[in-house]
Design a protein that fits this description.
Layout: H1 2-18, E1 27-31, H2 38-54, E2 57-61
Length: about 60
């Protein structure tokens, strides 16, 4: 029983060690109703600011 556990422990830990290498870039797509309305301009700026803080890219369409 213990011998099997000694094999399973590294086998279970391997995927956890590999995860940072699998990180992908995050891209957030947003569709806004208007690009001239002050409300949507402010919303876009806020989304861009927060996305930049998190290291994400943003794509906007109107």
């Amino acid at each position: 029983m213990q011998r099997r556990n000694l094999f399973l422990l590294p086998a279970l830990a391997l995927p956890a060690l590999a995860r940072p290498g699998l990180a992908q870039e995050v891209v957030v797509g947003v569709s806004l109703s208007s690009d001239t309305n002050p409300f949507y301009i402010a919303m876009r700026r806020g989304m861009e600011a927060r996305a930049n803080e998190l290291g994400w890219r943003t794509r906007f369409v109107t």
